[in-house]
Structures are given as C-alpha cells and as structure tokens.
Amino acid sequence: MNHPAIRKGAVAVITGAAVGIGYAIARRVASEGMNVVLFDRDSDALNVASKTILNEFPKVKLLAIQGDVTSERDLHQLYERSCEFGEVSLLVNNAAIINRAGPWDGMSKWRTLMDVNFWSVLMLQHLFVETMFSQNGAAAIVNLGSKEGITTRPGNAAYSLSKAAIKVLTEQLAHELREKVGDRISAHLLIPGYTFTPMNFPGMTSETQKPDSPWTADQVANRMIEKMAEGDFYIFCEDNESSWELDQRRMQWAADDMIKNRPALSRWHEDYADQFAAYIADVANK
C-alpha cells in the first residue's frame, strides 16, 4: 500500500521534472494513476518528457509548465495553475544545480546556487502548505537532499551548504506539520546516492551507457515510493559501490567530529586517514 498522498486522480507537482530524478518520479507517480504537473526551464526536454509520459500512461492528465525556479513570478504561476489542475497531494522539490563555489568565491555563484537549491524550495512550501491544510485529503512534500548535505565533503561548499539547509528545513517542516495536522500531511527528505543523471553526467543522452557504480533515477524513484509508504522521513538511497552500512559509518564519523573535538572534516584530514580506514574496514567492501 502506498503513502496516502500517492493516490489515483490527485495531482503531483514536480520541479526539475524533464530529466533525471524528477522525470523518473513523474513517471513513477503517473504509473500509480496520479495526474502530474511537470515544471522545468528546458522547454525542449519538457516537451519530450510530456509526450513520453502521456504515451506510456494515456489515462493520466499532464500539465507541462516551462519556467525557472529562481523566478517568483514563475513559481506563483506554477502554484496557481497546479491548484486549478486539481487537488495537489504531492509536491516534489527536485530542481537543483551543482555550480561548484568555494568558501571565498564570489557572491554571484553562491546566490545563483542558493536561489535554485534552497530559496525556491522555501518559496514553494510557503505557497503550497496552506493549500494542503485546506484540503481534506492526505498530502506530502518531498525535498531532495544529498549525502553531501550530511557529511559535507570538501570541494563543493555551496552545494553542500544548500543541501544541509534543505535537510534542516525539511526536518523543521516535518515537525511543524506533525504538530499541526498529525500524519495527514507529511514531509520527507529524499537522499540520493550516486545516480546516473545529467547532473552527474553532463551531456548524457539516451544512448549513453550507464557505468556500473551509480543507481538509475528509476531506482531512486522506486525507493521514494517504497519508503514513503513505510512512513520514513529520511529516505536514503545507496549506489552500487556504497552500501547502507558504509553510509552509516560515514555519517557517524561526521557527527563524531564535534563530539570528539576532531578537526573539521577529519575524514579527509591526512592525520586521520588510517583511523578512518580502520573504522570502515569491515563494511567498505561489502
């Protein structure tokens, strides 16, 4: 049995829905009979995605909206048209960019990334949550996090910060929703591992062969549906190189940096390399 927000005839709104994980989620919820609103800035990819989903699921209603998540005007249009389309029971904030910006890089890089990865999510929550309160049916919000927002590996400060912010925002959202309406509206943090998407493989096409290491976007979408049904808030996805046990050790090590007063990001500190290797030795090759 699915999460009650995943139900036939209700509307799922998905940002960054033309390719990758967003597109996979759109197809997956369409397979459950949901009507879907696809939002993406790439009009060509959006057209292809829309036609493909409608060909595969001809009974599903689909609304494709071209727009930019950094535009408040576009987000308001997305909200208004989605609500006119039907009862929105699922909002998936998937749109994100990497745009590697370091701790002292220029503000323009940081602002662009945070506008896409964080502020758009907060804006859409602001728009949709009150509407979900006014509806009778169950609803859910899924925000896309990242393991980089938990262990905050070096080399991609802005992205890691944005995903750490999404983690905290979604935790706070889940708590406040639970306090206000119990389990009628839930929030979930989807945490993909290494995934075969255009974000990780720029320029990929339908002919690009998937390497062995990453999961497919369909595997991530299936994991989301499965774990939402089980009531999970943190929805972790492995990949074909990092097991769940290894991910747990990495997260525990990151948390212990504070508890044990180690240097920041000690997992990547040369003085702790041997200690960390020993810490994960029994799970690293599973």
How would you characterize this protein structure?
The chain is an alpha/beta fold and 286 residues long. It folds into two domains: 11-241, Rossmann fold (3-Layer(aba) Sandwich); 243-286, no CATH class. The chain starts with 10 loop residues before the first strand and ends in a 6-residue tail after the last helix. Helix 1 crosses helix 6, helix 3 runs parallel beside helix 4 (107-134) and helix 4 (107-134) runs parallel beside helix 5 (157-181). Helix 4 links the parallel strand 4 (88-93) and strand 5. The chain has a seven-stranded parallel beta sheet, with helices on both faces. It is built from eight helices and seven strands, in the order βαβαβαβαβαβαβαα. The radius of gyration is 19 Å and the shape is globular. 45% of the residues lie in helices and 13% in strands.
The CATH first-level class of the largest domain comes to Alpha Beta
Distance between the termini: 31 Å
**What is the number of strand segments?**
7
Tally of domains: 2
According to CATH, the fold-level topology of the largest domain is Rossmann fold
Tell the overall outline: globular
Tell me which CATH architecture of the largest domain applies here: 3-Layer(aba) Sandwich
What is the N-to-C succession of helices and strands? Answer: EHEHEHEHEHEHEHH
- Overall mean pLDDT: 96
Helix content: 40-55%
Radius of gyration: 19 Å
Q: How are the strands ordered across the major sheet?
A: 3-2-1-4-5-6-7
The fraction of residues in strands falls at: 5-15%
